[in-house]
Write a structure and sequence with these properties.
single chain; 415 residues; alpha+beta; 6-stranded mixed sheet; 5-stranded antiparallel sheet
């Protein structure tokens, strides 16, 4: 086992000194301007006057300003206007200007005008019209005669009201996913900090995995570590044990983990600086090695991961990846994971590459590019089987192939 990886299991939060965001590994303003430029370049390429962003991952990417992100994901109470040229305006609850003080990506702060039912009630339509009128004035002021804008996420009243103002709307998610596709060196430095924090949390989980602990208690170790190290939230609760590991996608429960149980989990963690660490591991509770069947499943999952890593290359098309991917044995086919790989950045991102068997229904054109960060996925569990193994690695696509960003070791005892 790599001695560097071994250290991960032994490090504690107290031993780690610079994960609280006080000492970032790069110039945060350089990251912010790189990302804003990526958005504007994509708007220009698509001949758009600007974009209205409600989705909090998109507002984070464009401005790096955060406030009550999860709450604002389901309440249209905070949004950003990014024009191709002109001032970037963030609309905050009660015009909270201090949130974006000294941040170069924001030129102006205005009070948000909420039109969702919780805030507006019976005045929804009235508020939506006022909101759309303000956006239309911004389009006219910064876009000249170009009335085409992108919008990522808003209720139908917003769309109807913008159309009534003669604004042409295109999908904002395609704009933002394309902008977010290629990471700068500074972004990678921040992502590595998030992965480091996540893997310290994984080590805390590994240490706590003893018979009698509940799945929820074990999962809480990752949350505690992430927050203590400057992280933000975790998008899912994908941890299960014993018979709950197959089929996949059962979230953690109050089940007590037993000696010899297989435990599988997927981090989906938003760590320091807002970057995602999305890796998966599987362990045996309080046993030096698993059963013959557990080792067989684990070895197959590792084989799938290693094979699919080996075909990652700059310039390879999505279809070629699907054609060259590890052939899933028939006994594991029905319970296969939903994709071969997916992008990752501030969260799971474009692209998501389906298996060849699913290509006609879910495949799309595209190319693996240098500067993408991706996650290679595996779930191995037989149909009607007792247990399943979930593994996942996070990579940076390079000119030569890839750099593996995730470092937490696999379990050699299960191979």
């Amino acid at each position: 086992m790599d001695p560097t990886n071994t250290k991960i299991k032994n490090i504690s939060i107290q031993q780690h000194g610079a994960m609280d965001g006080i000492e970032p590994p790069c110039d945060l303003n350089a990251v912010r301007m790189y990302r804003l430029d990526r958005v504007r370049n994509e708007l220009s390429r698509c001949n758009l006057a600007g974009i209205v962003l409600f989705d909090q991952l998109n507002t984070r990417y464009a401005t790096d300003i955060t406030n009550m992100q999860l709450w604002c994901l389901h309440n249209e109470n905070r949004y950003v206007w990014v024009p191709v040229q002109g001032p970037v305006i963030i609309f905050e609850y009660d015009a909270q200007k201090h949130l974006s003080r000294n941040i170069p990506t924001v030129d102006e702060v205005r009070p948000a005008l909420p039109f969702y039912y919780f805030a507006a009630g019976s005045r929804q339509c009235e508020k939506a019209k006022l909101w759309a009128k303000e956006i239309a004035e911004l389009v006219k002021a910064t876009g000249g005669k170009n009335n085409r804008i992108a919008l990522d996420r808003a209720g139908p009243l917003a769309v109807f009201a913008l159309q009534a103002e003669n604004i042409e709307i295109v999908d904002g998610f395609s704009i933002m996913e394309t902008a977010r596709e290629i990471k700068s060196d500074d972004e990678i430095a921040l992502m590595k900090k998030s992965i480091e924090a996540c893997e310290i949390g994984i080590a805390a989980m590994h240490k706590a995995l003893l018979p009698g602990i509940t799945e929820n208690e074990l999962w809480a170790k990752l949350h505690e570590s992430n927050i203590a190290l400057g992280g933000e939230w975790i998008e899912t609760r994908l941890l299960s044990s014993g018979p709950r590991t197959n089929p996949w996608f059962q979230e953690s429960s109050m089940r007590k983990i037993k000696k010899g149980d297989l435990v599988s989990f997927d981090t989906d963690l938003i760590g320091p600086y807002g970057y995602c660490c999305d890796i998966s591991r599987a362990w045996i509770c309080d046993a030096t090695k698993g059963t013959d069947e557990q080792r067989r499943l684990y070895s197959a999952a590792v084989e799938q991961i290693e094979h699919n890593k080996s075909i990652i290359k700059d310039g390879t098309t999505f279809r070629e990846i699907a054609e060259k991917a590890w052939p899933i044995p028939e006994e594991f086919f029905d319970n296969r994971y939903g994709c071969i790989l997916h992008g990752v950045g501030l969260c799971d991102e474009y692209p998501a590459l389906p298996h060849l068997s699913d290509w006609e229904r879910s495949g799309n054109d595209g190319t693996i590019k240098e500067g993408m960060t991706i996650c290679i996925e595996s779930f191995i569990g037989a149909k009607d089987g007792h247990e399943g193994v979930k593994l996942e690695e996070q990579l940076l696509v390079t000119a030569e192939g890839f750099e593996q960003l995730s470092k937490y070791p696999f379990e050699n005892s299960l191979l």
